[in-house]
Amino acid sequence: MEENDEIMDDFQEEDVEHVGVGKVLNFLKSRNVRASVISRFRTEKMDPDAICGADDKLLEDLGLCAKGDICALRSYCQGWNSSSTPSGSFTQTPESCRQERKRKLMAILQSGKKTRLKQNVAETSTKSKKPNNVATGSSVQMKEKTRRIQLGWLHYNKKEDRYIHVRATNGGGTRNMEFPAAYTKDNVLQAAIGIFFENGQSKFGFANEMEFDLANFKMEKVDVLRDNDGIENPFTIQGYFQCYKLSKARIYLMSKDKTITEVTNSETEVNATSNDFPAWDDFFDEENQSTVGDSPQISSPIFNEPTSKSQLIGTSEERASFFTELEGKVRRSELADQEKARENERQKREAERREELRLSREARVFPEVEIDDPSHMLVNVRHISFGIVTRSFKKEWSVSAVYDWIGSMSAQPEHFSLTCATTKKLIFPDVKCETVQRTTLNMSEREIPVPLSEDEKEVFFYAGNSSHFEVTDDTVVTNTNSFELEQ
């Protein structure tokens, strides 16, 4: 320490002008740095400006090896203003430096705020000068209004003579789409064909071999929309929502093979023209028939021409063969008409039977429970045709009430089951409604009625008719004591 004091005294006597160097030497002295190192700093005239510009290697070469001394010295020198006054002394303290930086920062922030304010005022004035009828870039790029719909697919089944749902495994299913509200029928048709007929083909054939149409949520063809006044309007997505007062809409793409339509049209033409041909007996009436050898000849009253100048082509055998073939076609057409009539009658009876089943289910539907009822609960069912439907029931009621309600909404399908959406477990009609609270049930089509309970697989839920329990003996029993039980 005494050696350091001697060095500082020598420095003050020999070089009083280098005040900055003296500050550095005093700081090194306070850090108990060796006198030889302080002497080298004095010799090299390391003032605060030099310290701030030197790297760690240079300071280590001067003998300041400790990292802590290097960091402390550089921090000390950065806190001072390295520029000196004409007198050679420092004029700012670290606190004054911080205040100065704070003042400059506030000035920069204030200037930036004023600049932004001026820009906003300029933009507002520019917009106010534009005419009202001139569309700005933002208004041109305004997002077009769209509506969400559920899109399904119905394909015509020739065997069943009706349109059936196409399931997802066959490329159908339900697609949640978002279309512009101004989409017309043609727009929706093209979009639906592109979705279900990827690359122009599907499991049922190519798109160019199909006839397409649109159907509403009732699976009825839709061409125009009628408002409350009965005025017909062209089909649009927005008009579809407004016409049926829907919050969620479902639209079906209907497809039918063109070959089926062509066969039906050709059969109709044959049926229409078959009545124009005279009967076989009219051509070969005994009074108008002459015989040359064994060949029948057509007499002149029919063709109004002499036999020698007849314009018929071919022999009488060829003509007879032609009319025989023609008669065969007519008879086959008549048989086809009869078969079609029987099929139509069968379908009519089937539709009536299904409607009777629906009405019987509807008759068993309980009135909807009021909200203030303590046992009130809501049941959600995902219907095959109508999407998710909701109705209130009592907790103590059995799920058979839910089956009746769902079955009364549509005649299709005839038999169905309800399964839990999360567990995929079949919900039997004999369980309580409270077991399906706060869950969604999925409706699935079945070939046979659902069993009444899980334990009794042979007893089915009542399907609306009693064809298996017909009683032919209507004798009234007045005294049961006369009957003996069979052992």
UniProtKB/TrEMBL annotation:
Bias (Polar residues): 121-141, 289-310
Stated name of the protein: Uncharacterized protein
Span list, region Disordered: 117-141, 286-310, 334-353
